[in-house]
């Protein structure tokens, strides 16, 4: 009666498992294999004080130097931060921040002088920082169309629904669509060195190499392949509402124009936290003898286009050197030193316990 | 005395059923005016659940009836309908996967069922119709058809046997496929039916179908021309069941009475009620906690979202405008959808995959039980059998073991040891054989006694194996041969006897030794070969069957000389009241002495019936047998009436040897903290001596007796005496006993103070029913609880003279007592089925009393000794495995979702997921599922030998120790600690997102990926830390899934996926790996997360090696010293450690708060101290 063995009891419809064999008689001796008898050769580590103690010391001995190294490295990184939001009356940008309007045609410029107390020796990286700006807001993060940015003609003319309400303007598709692109950071920052005799020397700012290589070369592509005439390619689209110029006029350099404009790509990589910084320019070291930014007076000239007042945000310009671990951040160094010390300390305590009580207990076991 | 109880208990089950009338061969009978062919169901067996058309809807409906599946369906629907942060794919895919796999599995099984059904339904059978044989398909058989079945064919439906090709109107069947009993059973044709079936005109009246295989009540009216219709009673011996096979008989004809789904076989395959394990209850409780966490998380986020949005400029800054539709939505609706969105975002905290993994673990895990070669018994050529894999872990939680005696503790291999005839003992021994003739006693009495032994039984003589007979007979030979303990068999002794009870075989064989050989039953005549090699013939008139309530059986025979004799044998308690009192005293002494020696005793009595007496009895019996209703009761009444005024001839003693290693097994179970209760139908003295032999009672055990005898000692009313004794015992065993707690402390107590008295409790069935059904209602419950308390304080309890239902009653009482202890019943016979079904875990022994116990059990083992490994090794390991699995699953999902929850505080409560959708989906399915599955199948935290050698280890996991709230709290705190650490560790790293040496910055997806990488590694390594048994599979799976994660991440981020709207992870993982800082933070966080666990492991260390030492040294004082030293060591380290953990967390928080902002250090120190604290408490003082 075959029916019996499959008429088992799964009434409730889920994976009820009728046991192996399900009622049939087993007239066979079970195989004597290591697996079936649960006797697979096994490594049975027993963590004892004896094995863990050295580990603690080793971790301590490795982590503390790393931590110190990290801490020193981080401390050696020079960083200068200038808030140019212009909230205070005294701030040079106060006027610009107060008189902001989207429709003004004349750019508002402000100049912030500052003094660099220490020379920046190596390459200097110039960041802009925004605070209280929720680039990681869900509505914001998803408001983009990566197919469009990847040069897909179809998506260029029919932006994704995710881009709403920044997908179309006056019945024309917006390129690039979405809230992220629409709110692209558009302040222009320029740096001038005031040399001791008063002349103002513009410091050359490199705008290449600020975006991830893969983003620039693979993920972002202009539509129309290698067609150099971007104006024609973007025919039939319109610029994002808040932009002053269309995307194909972001730069004169054709390698840095359209969707593959690096400022644009950097902006499109949404930040993790509401206070963030983004790489703006690189000041390359020219000469091994002269520091990239010598000690002295500088001015930062800002074309103030980007409003942050409405959401109580802040704008900063950051100059920083970079080490092998990235920008200045003492967290890692301290954390490593702390964890290393804890391990070391635990190692010592465990050693004492082990030495004092472990041995006695062992000997007691043996004598009895 | 059991009758009232028995009946009240049975009352619920015995539904009064209407009878059905069957017209044999569809011939109208003269008695009925109009022939209305009754409608019965056809003979189609439908075991399949689905058809091609209804498979999808029906299967889906059944799957979504599961609460978990339904929950995930709801989540999925919410994701589809509401604008939610994660795409419906993330939860839809796993759900789809689970549903599909289940559907395929069920579909396949149903296909097999269809196939099996077809095989059965399309099977060609022969139906006799109007004198012609017609071959037709089995499914076409209708009730009333006369069916012909040939040898070795199975019966196509339930048939009443009308005609057999054998001369003696019998046929033989085996019911191996029904109940597994492979012996041949004899079935009888209905008496007085005509040989010519065509002219047979008869109706059958029988009860409506009921599932009991061994019960059938009906009667047949045979109409002959010009005669009064004859009425014949029909019983189970006339009924051939569908599924049974015809043996030893060329062909039979029978009339179909039950067909198709109404056959007893079909009725028996309705599944048993599902037992749920305690672990499942824990899972549900934890689930509730996590649901609360989930809902409260969503509520907190929704509330904060609206608080946060109420500030100007936050809700809709210029850079992030809402769409028109969003602006138009009603505020409350928006709040509600936001709440749902958060639910969806956090719903991964309750994973679909946990259910799948738990099911897989149970299913696959149970294979190790069937595969275990230690459970293989060479004698019966079988190993263990798993009927329910749902209860694997329950085997590790047993607190009460209820065991049957005969066949379970003992071998049920009966050997006739001694008989006592009229007060003179006779031992069966070759030396004494010679003496028999010297001893002077009544020769006549002796022969009467031996004749009684030869006649009073239901044993059949097995025919000499013919050429066509198969393996089953070979098996029987083997089993029967063993009864004689391997002695060389004389040719005439090779005669095989088949009986349902081994006692009877032993007695018949015993009589054979004395020269009286039972030759068999031939057309109602019993033949006996006596000492003078003459064949004596007795006509068998009636068999008054044995039943456990009456505890005796009788036969009525007529000798050649025309005397009508009644022979009766049974338990002394049921025989003594029915014989002349002056005969009793002589024999009672011997019976009691034999019983104390552990022999099973039976008394034999006889009575000569006068012609009137016989006529009266005969009429009574026939009438009762024909009754359709209350047949049992009526029969019982007649039996009782007939079996009176007998004279006692003698008593027999049959030895039933203890099972191999019975004592060791019992000792191990007691050592493991289980209370062993012996529930037996046997005499108290016999049972008591078995208990001593099994070392359930020790020499120093004080026995508290509560039996009919002790009650009668006082000379007062039984009930008063009972209450007095109960109070007395309660004072002794409960109040005066030192207050001990369950578990480890108790064992320590027992080790420390030998002065602590062990108590054993003995109660018999009669007293038990008095305790349970006390006349004063108010007192009843009180005495019941007193009784229960006494029993629970005794090391062993013996309940003798139990009816099967009383066994179940006791199990139920303990099961429902305070604390709901886990009970296990083990037995081998049909009388144990009720308690096997009642207990949490039912174990059947593949013994000699048929297969009912095995069929109804959850696990079946060949021998009692296998119970030790089943519980101590398999049960222990399964419990630890599944407990760890469950806790780990909750833990890993908590620390998976917590960072996502925390992220909401940094993204404006916008339901932005921290991890990419692929990670959300794959986390539970691919990245972390295999290691825990491998762990839960292979882990042996203590190796099997040690577990077996050292039963006390079982106590460590008693009372669901690993799934109580404390460990759950520990795991939850650990999960929270890890979640906080992952999130804030990376958050502080991202205070400067320029993490690469080229100054470029990382975005939110890099953030999530770093957290996720730490998460996957930590969670996997945490499991690696917990793994004590690294086989190559563990290595492969643990390192493999980590490698798979890395590989997958590269792959997922390495391609622009055309079907994705957003290329969020494009090269994120690769970029992360190019950053030294990311590496450093990943390593740091993993290490820091694992630190508490490493510390815990070190401080728990003494358990492992110590356990091993205890395992090696069996002797008592050493064990004591070990545990002493161990305890001291533990206390010291505990004290040290708690102070250490305090200073540690202080120093940690100080050092961190110097440099970091407050929350991190706070959370660190808080969670560290929290996660460490269980250590100090989990170690016993």
TrEMBL record, chain A:
The chain crosses the membrane at residues 46-72, 331-353. Its main location: membrane. The lineage of its organism: Eukaryota, Metazoa, Chordata, Craniata, Vertebrata. GO terms for biological process: phospholipid translocation. Residues 1-30 are annotated as: Disordered. Keywords: Cell membrane, Cytoplasmic vesicle, Disulfide bond, Glycoprotein, Golgi apparatus, Lipid transport, Membrane, Transmembrane, Transmembrane helix, Transport. The keyword Membrane applies. Belongs to the CDC50/LEM3 family. It holds the Pfam family CDC50. InterPro entries: CDC50/LEM3_fam (IPR005045). It is a multi-pass membrane protein. It comes from Myripristis murdjan. GO terms for cellular component: apical plasma membrane; endoplasmic reticulum; Golgi apparatus; transport vesicle membrane. It is found in: Apical cell membrane; Cytoplasmic vesicle, Secretory vesicle membrane; Golgi apparatus; Membrane. It comes from the Eukaryota. This is Cell cycle control protein. The keyword Repressor does not apply.
TrEMBL record, chain B:
Residues 38-91 form the P-type ATPase N-terminal domain. Residues 854-1101 form the P-type ATPase C-terminal domain. The keyword S-adenosyl-L-methionine does not apply. Its main location: membrane. Its cofactor is Mg(2+). The active site is at 404 (4-aspartylphosphate intermediate). It catalyses: ATP + H2O + phospholipidSide 1 = ADP + phosphate + phospholipidSide 2. InterPro entries: ATPase_P-typ_cyto_dom_N (IPR023299), ATPase_P-typ_P_site (IPR018303), ATPase_P-typ_TM_dom_sf (IPR023298), ATPase_P-typ_transduc_dom_A_sf (IPR008250), ATPase_P-type_domA (IPR059000), HAD-like_sf (IPR036412), HAD_sf (IPR023214), P-type_ATPase_IV (IPR006539). It is found in: Endomembrane system; Membrane. One of its GO terms (molecular function) is ATP binding. One of its GO terms (cellular component) is recycling endosome. Mg(2+) binds at residues 404, 406, 828, 832. The keyword Amino-acid biosynthesis does not apply. Keywords: ATP-binding, Magnesium, Membrane, Metal-binding, Nucleotide-binding, Translocase, Transmembrane, Transmembrane helix. Residues 124-264 form the P-type ATPase A domain. The chain crosses the membrane at residues 285-308, 339-358, 968-990, 1005-1024, 1036-1057. It holds the Pfam family E1-E2_ATPase. GO terms for biological process: phospholipid translocation. It is a multi-pass membrane protein. Its EC number is 7.6.2.1. It is an enzyme of class 7 (translocase). Belongs to the cation transport ATPase (P-type) (TC 3.A.3) family. Type IV subfamily. NCBIfam families: ATPase-Plipid, ATPase_P-type. PANTHER family: PHOSPHOLIPID-TRANSPORTING ATPASE IG, PROBABLE PHOSPHOLIPID-TRANSPORTING ATPASE. This is Phospholipid-transporting ATPase. It comes from Myripristis murdjan. The lineage of its organism: Eukaryota, Metazoa, Chordata, Craniata, Vertebrata.
């Amino acid at each position: 009666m075959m029916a019996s063995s499959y008429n088992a009891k799964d009434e409730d419809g889920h994976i009820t498992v009728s046991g192996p064999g399900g009622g049939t008689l087993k007239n066979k001796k079970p195989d004597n294999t290591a697996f079936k008898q649960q006797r697979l050769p096994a490594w049975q580590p027993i963590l004892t004080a004896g094995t863990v103690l050295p580990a603690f010391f080793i971790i301590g001995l490795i982590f503390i130097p790393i931590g110190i190294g990290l801490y020193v490295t981080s401390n050696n990184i020079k960083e200068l931060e200038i808030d140019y939001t212009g909230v205070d009356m005294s701030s040079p940008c106060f006027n610009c921040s107060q008189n902001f309007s989207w429709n003004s045609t004349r750019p508002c410029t402000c100049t912030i002088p500052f003094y660099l107390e220490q020379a920046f020796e190596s390459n200097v990286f110039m960041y802009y920082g925004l605070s209280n700006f929720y680039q990681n807001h869900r509505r914001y993060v998803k408001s983009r169309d990566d197919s469009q940015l990847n040069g897909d003609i179809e998506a260029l003319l029919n932006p994704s629904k995710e881009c709403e309400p920044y997908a179309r303007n006056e019945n024309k598709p917006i390129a690039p669509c979405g809230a992220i692109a629409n709110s692209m950071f558009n302040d222009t920052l320029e740096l001038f060195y005031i040399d001791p005799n008063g002349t103002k020397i513009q410091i050359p700012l490199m705008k290449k190499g600020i975006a991830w290589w893969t983003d620039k070369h693979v993920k972002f592509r202009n539509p129309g392949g290698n067609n150099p005439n971007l104006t024609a390619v973007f025919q039939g689209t319109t610029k994002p509402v808040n932009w002053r110029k269309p995307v194909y006029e972001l730069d004169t350099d054709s390698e840095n124009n359209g969707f593959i404009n690096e400022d644009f790509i950097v902006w499109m990589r949404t930040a993790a936290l509401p206070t963030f910084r983004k790489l703006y320019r690189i000041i390359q070291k020219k000469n091994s003898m002269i520091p990239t930014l010598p000690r002295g007076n500088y001015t930062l000239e800002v074309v103030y286009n980007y409003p942050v007042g409405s959401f109580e945000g802040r704008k900063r310009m950051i100059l920083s050197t970079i080490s092998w671990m990235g920008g200045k951040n003492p967290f890692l160094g301290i954390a490593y030193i702390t964890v290393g010390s804890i391990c070391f300390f635990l190692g010592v305590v465990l050693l004492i316990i082990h030495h004092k009580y472990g041995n006695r207990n062992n000997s007691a076991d043996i004598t009895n | 005395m059991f009758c009232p109880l028995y009946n009240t208990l049975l009352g619920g089950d015995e539904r009064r059923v209407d009878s059905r009338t069957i017209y044999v061969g569809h011939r109208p009978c003269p008695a009925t005016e109009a022939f209305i062919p009754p409608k019965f169901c056809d003979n189609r067996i439908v075991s399949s659940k689905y058809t091609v058309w209804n498979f999808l809807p029906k299967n889906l409906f059944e799957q979504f009836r599961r609460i978990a599946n339904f929950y995930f369906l709801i989540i999925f629907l919410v994701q589809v309908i509401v604008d939610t942060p994660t795409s419906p794919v993330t939860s839809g895919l796993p759900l789809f996967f689970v549903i599909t796999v289940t559907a395929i599995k069920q579909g396949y099984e149903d296909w097999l069922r269809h196939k099996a059904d077809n095989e059965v339904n399309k099977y060609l059978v022969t139906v006799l119709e109007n004198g012609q044989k017609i071959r037709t398909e089995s499914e076409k058989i209708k009730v009333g058809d006369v069916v012909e079945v040939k040898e070795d064919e199975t019966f196509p439906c339930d048939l009443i046997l009308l005609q057999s090709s054998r001369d003696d109107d019998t046929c033989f069947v085996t019911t191996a496929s029904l109940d597994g009993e492979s012996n041949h059973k004899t079935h009888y044709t209905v008496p007085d039916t005509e040989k010519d079936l065509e002219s047979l005109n008869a109706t059958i009246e029988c009860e409506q179908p009921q599932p009991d295989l061994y019960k059938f009540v009906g009667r047949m009216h045979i109409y002959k021309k010009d005669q009064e219709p004859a009425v014949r009673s029909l019983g189970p011996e006339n009924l051939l069941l569908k599924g049974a096979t015809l043996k030893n008989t060329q062909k039979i004809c029978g009339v179909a009475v039950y067909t198709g789904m109404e056959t007893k076989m079909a009725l028996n395959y309705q599944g048993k009620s599902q037992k749920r394990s305690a672990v499942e209850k824990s899972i549900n409780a934890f689930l509730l906690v996590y649901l609360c966490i989930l809902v409260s998380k969503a509520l907190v986020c929704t509330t904060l979202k609206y608080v946060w949005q109420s500030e100007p400029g936050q809700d809709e800054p210029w850079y992030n405008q809402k769409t028109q539709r969003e602006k138009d939505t009603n505020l409350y609706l928006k709040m509600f959808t936001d709440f749902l969105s958060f639910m969806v975002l956090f719903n991964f905290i309750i994973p679909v995959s946990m259910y799948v993994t738990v099911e897989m673990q149970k299913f696959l895990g149970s294979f190790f039980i069937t595969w275990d070669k230690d459970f293989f018994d060479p004698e019966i050529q079988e190993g263990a059998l798993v009927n329910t894999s749902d209860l694997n872990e329950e085997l590790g939680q047993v607190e009460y073991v209820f065991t049957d005696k005969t066949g379970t503790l003992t071998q049920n291999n009966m050997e006739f040891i001694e008989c006592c005839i009229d007060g003179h003992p006779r031992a069966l021994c070759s030396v004494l054989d010679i003496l028999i003739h010297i001893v002077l006693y009544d020769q006549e009495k002796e022969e009467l006694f031996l004749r009684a032994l030869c006649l009073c039984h239901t044993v059949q003589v097995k025919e000499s194996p013919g050429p066509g007979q198969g393996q089953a007979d070979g098996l029987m030979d083997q089993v029967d041969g063993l009864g004689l303990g391997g002695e060389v068999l004389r040719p005439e002794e090779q005669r095989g006897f088949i009986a349902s009870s081994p006692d009877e075989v032993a007695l018949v064989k015993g009589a054979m030794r004395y020269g009286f050989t039972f030759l068999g039953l031939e057309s109602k005549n019993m033949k006996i070969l006596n000492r003078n090699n003459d064949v004596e013939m007795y006509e068998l008139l009636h068999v008054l069957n044995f039943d456990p309530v009456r505890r005796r059986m009788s036969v009525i025979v007529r000798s050649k000389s025309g005397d009508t004799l009644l022979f009766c044998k049974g338990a002394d308690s049921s025989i003594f009241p029915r014989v002349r009192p002056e005969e009793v005293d002589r024999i009672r002494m011997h019976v009691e002495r034999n019983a104390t020696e552990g022999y099973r005793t039976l008394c034999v009595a006889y009575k000569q019936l006068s012609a009137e007496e016989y006529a009266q009895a005969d009429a009574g019996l026939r009438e009762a047998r024909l009754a359709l209703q209350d047949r049992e009761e009526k029969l019982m009444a007649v039996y009782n009436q007939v079996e009176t005024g007998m004279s006692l001839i003698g008593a027999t003693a049959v030895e039933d040897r203890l099972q191999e290693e019975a004592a060791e097994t019992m000792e191990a179970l007691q050592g493991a903290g289980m209370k062993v209760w012996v529930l037996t139908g046997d005499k108290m003295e016999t049972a008591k001596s078995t208990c001593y032999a099994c070392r359930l009672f020790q020499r120093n055990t004080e026995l508290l007796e509560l039996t009919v005898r002790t009650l009668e000692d006082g000379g007062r009313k039984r009930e008063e005496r009972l209450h007095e004794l109960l109070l007395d015992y309660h004072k002794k065993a409960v109040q005066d006993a030192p207050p001990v707690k369950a578990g480890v402390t108790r064992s320590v107590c027992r080790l420390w103070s030998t002065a602590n008295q062990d108590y054993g409790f003995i109660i018999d069935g009669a007293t038990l029913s008095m305790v349970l059904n006390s006349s004063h209602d108010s007192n009843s419950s009180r005495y019941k609880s007193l009784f229960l308390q006494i029993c629970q304080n005794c090391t062993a309890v013996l309940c003798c003279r139990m009816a099967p239902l009383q066994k179940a009653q006791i199990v139920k009482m303990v099961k429902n007592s305070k604390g709901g202890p886990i009970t296990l019943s083990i037995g081998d016979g049909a009388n144990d089925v009720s308690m096997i079904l009642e207990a949490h875990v039912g174990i059947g022994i593949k013994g000699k009393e048929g297969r009912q116990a095995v069929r109804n059990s959850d696990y079946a083992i060949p021998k009692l000794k296998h119970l030790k490994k089943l519980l101590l090794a398999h049960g222990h390991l399964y419990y630890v495995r599944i407990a760890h699995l469950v806790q780990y699953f909750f833990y890993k999902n908590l620390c998976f979702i917590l960072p996502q929850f925390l992220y909401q505080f940094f993204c404006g409560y916008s339901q932005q997921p921290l991890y990419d959708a692929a990670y959300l989906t794959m986390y539970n399915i691919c990245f972390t599922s295999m290691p825990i599955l491998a762990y839960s199948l292979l882990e042996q935290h203590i190796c099997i030998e040690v577990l077996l050698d050292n039963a006390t280890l079982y106590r460590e996991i008693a009372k669901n120790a690993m799934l109580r709230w404390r460990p759950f709290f520990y795991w939850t705190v650990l999960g929270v600690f890890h979640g906080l650490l992952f999130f804030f560790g990376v958050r502080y790293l991202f205070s400067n997102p320029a993490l690469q040496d080229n100054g470029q910055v990382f975005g939110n997806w890099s953030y999530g990926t770093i957290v996720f990488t730490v998460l996957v590694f930590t969670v996997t390594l945490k499991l690696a830390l917990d793994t004590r048994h690294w086989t190559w599979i563990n290595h492969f799976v643990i390192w493999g899934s980590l490698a798979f994660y890395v590989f997958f991440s590269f792959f997922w981020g390495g391609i622009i996926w055309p079907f994705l709207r957003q290329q969020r992870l494009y090269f994120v993982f690769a970029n992360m790996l190019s950053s030294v800082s990311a590496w450093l933070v990943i390593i740091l966080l993993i290490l820091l997360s694992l630190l508490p666990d490493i510390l815990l492991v070190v401080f728990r260390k003494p358990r492992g090696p110590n356990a091993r030492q205890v395992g090696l040294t069996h002797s008592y004082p050493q064990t004591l010293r070990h545990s002493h030293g161990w305890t001291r060591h533990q206390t010291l380290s505990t004290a040290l450690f708690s102070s250490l953990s305090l200073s540690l967390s202080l120093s940690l928080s100080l050092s961190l708060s110097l440099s970091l902002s407050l929350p991190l250090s706070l959370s660190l120190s808080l969670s560290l101290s929290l996660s460490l604290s269980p250590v100090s408490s989990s170690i016993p003082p």
